[in-house]
Write a structure and sequence with these properties.
This protein is mainly alpha-helical. It has a single domain (2-164), classed as Hypothetical protein af1432, CATH 1.10.3210. It is built from 10 helices and no strands. The protein has helices at residues 2-9, 11-23, 34-50, 54-60, 66-79, 84-90, 94-105, 113-125, 135-146, 160-164. α3 runs antiparallel to α5, α4 (54-60) crosses α5 (66-79) and α5 crosses α8 (113-125). The mean pLDDT is 92. The structure holds fe (ii) ion. The site of fe (ii) ion has 6 residues, from α7. Fe (ii) ion binds at residues 80-81, 94-95, 126-127.
């Protein structure tokens, strides 16, 4: 996955992940660092494989093949929360802002315009489940929920995601 390796080395990508770490340095729970992004990328890919949906995604997304599909799923997972630091600083929605940041990074790491649309839409959509969500957006949303065992979190009573209703499922429901 050459393009995913390039994405992980992109200077702006590293900067945004570091910004998240900085903003969350005092948080004990629910960090949005590199590990969370890798978890979500892997789980989103597992969800697609478990349901035998990779060929469907290749076709539906107009992609060149399974490797391109895997690289798009990974990119969406790795980018989905890169705007989080800005939400802490300004209050602006991190999904919409993150999609804009992703749109700037992806051409540098050789994603084509069609792939960029799929990935940026998924980043934009990942926060809330909705009926007209894209295939990739829904997988990233589910993977995000599955990436944390919220039922075991000591701080769940204070979780902003619970009050925002960002969770559509509990972990292990799929
Ligand atoms: Fe998010």
């Amino acid at each position: 996955m050459k393009r995913v390796e390039l994405l992980l080395k992109d200077a702006h990508y590293i900067e945004y992940i570091n910004n998240n770490n900085e903003e969350e340095s005092a948080n004990k729970y629910c960090q949005h660092g590199l590990q969370h992004h890798i978890d979500v990328a892997r789980i989103a890919y597992i969800l697609v494989l478990e349901h035998n949906d990779l060929n469907y995604f290749v076709k539906e997304g107009g992609l060149s093949g399974k490797l391109a599909a895997k690289e798009c799923i990974y990119a969406a997972g790795l980018l989905h929360d890169i705007g989080k630091w800005n939400e802490y600083r300004t209050g602006a929605d991190h999904a919409a802002f993150g999609a804009r940041l992703a749109r700037d990074i992806l051409p540098r790491v050789f994603y084509n315009p069609n792939e960029i649309e799929l990935i940026c839409r998924a980043v934009y959509e990942h926060r809330n489940i909705s009926r007209d969500m894209s295939f990739l957006g829904e997988r990233v949303h589910r993977a995000d929920n599955l990436s944390r065992v919220c039922s075991q979190c000591e701080d769940r009573a204070n979780c902003p995601k619970r009050s925002n209703k960002e969770f559509s499922v509990t972990a292990f429901e799929y």
